[in-house]
Write a structure and sequence with these properties.
Elements (H helix, E strand, L loop, with lengths): L1 E7 L4 E8 L2 E5 L6 H9 L3 E6 L11 H8 L2 E4 L10 E2 L5 E4 L2 E7 L8 E6 L5 E7 L20 H16 L7 E4 L17 E2 H7 L8 H9 L9 H10 L4 H8 L2 E2 L1 H11 L2 E4 L3 H6 L6 E2 L6 H8 L7 E4 L5 H9 L6 E5 L2 H7 L8 E3 L1 H10 L5 E3 L3 H6 L1 E2 L3 E2 L5 H4 L9 E4 L4 H12 L5 E4 L2 H8 L4 E2 L9
Parallel strand pairs: 3-4, 4-5, 5-6, 10-11, 13-17, 14-15, 14-16, 16-17, 18-23, 19-21, 19-22, 22-23
Antiparallel strand pairs: 1-2, 2-3, 7-8, 8-9, 9-10, 11-12, 20-24
Length: 470
């Protein structure tokens, strides 16, 4: 028996490969099929089943394409109603993969169809659980993502409590827990950076599992939940009803366009231009009205948070050789309408003498010098509210990037703002969006709050200042 976790850091998502005696199962695959097919081929194994723990909200799963290419059976837990051919298992139903078995444990709560898959090894021992978004390392799944239901989040949290206590916590302490996500995912609020643990450790250290009653559990898991990104319910619908083939999405999105063709496409179809270069590279020169969301960060998640329409036509400005990666990462969260990329990147655009724009970016040291001369400099902190509440610069206004589109009117166009985030990624995203909307008086503080604090010359407080823009 072989169990492998296939972890994708930019989405904080874990898929799983299980192989035994020439047969394999995949749990919660991402949109691309090649890694799973190649992994099975290396073992000379046939992919027999594709198990889905639930209808995912934070990414588009690869179950449909993978099933089409391998002939594997898609398996969901009880109550699932997919809009395509799949096996909807009964609670307790078992599936053979080589000489091991996978038992379905219906564990509603995160969503009503959510299920945990229990791996039983060759000796009949309960070996591991693949918990999806039911149980994480250090947390449990958020109970507010069910699509089209009259259940409240408190109702779902109650179901989750029952699922954990009747189906999971009754298992032996040495069972390995393989969750669907790690730290950085918006599917929970307190996830560990660790992505594997024993159930015994989770019983001792997971705050949600130590609740003394259902009432206490419901209160703890529903307190402090921030609204999920707007693309979550849209991805859940795609996973439930189906979607286009990823190979076709990549073929369309990787069409190389000359600067003239690129500009024409942007004008004719109203395409959103996304520049995926690093923040400081973008600052030195970019195509006017393009948005910077760098590939080196949580690219797909930020596109999903900030771009409201999954069908929005998208054009890419990317470093050489990075276009396909960007198209794939867009497809992972359901943005399938990328229509091409700028051949040769920004350098080609610039070489033709076309119009360019820039962002003024200053070091934290320079910012400190200017602040010393004028302590009333307007400062815009685009970190999340929880980060701001923990520690921030005195007098700064908090306008989280997550809610920038809804709060833009609160920014004074006559002011010159110094904009920062934690390290420089999100501030450039925010500035690029604001510049595309006609804001011009924006200065980036390179290195973000980390650099600001490191200067030791700027006032920092953990007091929640009353000028938070939410």
């Amino acid at each position: 028996m072989n169990v492998e976790q296939i972890y994708t850091g930019c989405l904080a998502e874990a898929a799983y490969y299980i192989e035994s005696n020439g047969e394999a199962a995949i749990i919660d695959p991402l949109r691309e099929t090649k890694p799973y097919i190649e992994r099975a081929a290396a073992d000379e194994a046939t992919i027999k089943y594709i198990f889905e723990t639930h209808f995912h909200a934070d990414f588009v799963s690869g179950h449909l394409d993978l099933a089409a290419k391998t002939g594997a059976t898609i398996v969901f837990g009880p109550t699932a109603q997919p809009g395509y051919t799949a096996h909807v298992a009964k609670d307790g139903e078992e599936f053979s993969v080589g000489s091991v078995k996978i038992r379905v444990l219906h564990t509603p709560g995160h969503t009503m169809e959510s299920s945990t898959f229990l791996l039983i090894d060759e000796n009949g021992k309960e070996s591991a659980i693949f918990t999806g978004d039911t149980l994480f390392i250090g947390d449990v799944g958020r109970p507010d993502l069910a699509v089209k239901t009259d259940l409240t989040r408190e109702d779902l949290a109650g179901y989750l409590y029952d699922s954990l206590h009747t189906k999971i916590l009754t298992l032996p302490d040495d069972v390995t827990v393989y969750p669907g996500h790690g730290a950085g995912s918006a599917c929970g609020k307190n996830m560990s950076k660790e992505t594997i643990d024993t159930l015994g450790n989770q019983k001792r250290f997971n705050y949600a599992l130590r609740a003394r009653s259902k009432q206490e559990f419901v209160k703890e898991v529903t307190t402090g939940l921030m609204p999920p990104p707007q693309y979550f319910p849209k991805n859940a619908v795609l996973n439930k009803m189906g979607y286009g083939q990823v190979d076709e999405v990549i073929q369309q999105g990787t069409q190389a366009l000359s600067p003239a063709a690129f500009e024409a496409a942007a004008n004719e179809v109203g395409a959103l231009m996304i520049d995926v270069r690093a923040a400081q590279e973008f600052a030195k020169g970019f195509i006017p009205n393009s948005i910077n969301i760098g590939l080196e960060g949580q690219f797909a998640g930020w596109v999903g948070t900030l771009v409201p329409d999954l069908k929005q036509p998208i054009l890419l400005i990317s470093p050489e050789g990075k276009a396909e990666e960007a198209v794939l990462r867009l497809a992972r969260v359901g943005y399938d309408n990328c229509i091409g990329y700028l051949k040769g990147g920004f350098a080609t655009w610039q070489a033709e003498g076309r119009e360019v724009d820039t962002v003024t970016s200053v070091s934290a040291g320079t910012f400190a010098e200017r602040y010393a001369q004028n302590p009333d400099l307007p400062v815009l902190d685009v970190r999340r509210k929880s980060e701001f509440d923990s520690e921030h610069m005195v007098g700064a206004e908090n306008l989280p990037l997550d809610y920038l589109n809804d709060n833009m009117a609160r920014i004074d166009r006559s002011q010159t703002y110094y904009v920062h985030c934690a390290g420089g990624y999100r501030s450039m995203v925010a500035i690029s969006i604001l510049k595309a909307r006609g804001f011009s008086n924006l200065i980036d503080v390179a290195g973000g709050f980390a650099a600001i604090k490191q200067t030791g010359k700027l006032p920092v407080t953990d007091y929640v200042c009353p000028t938070t823009l939410l």
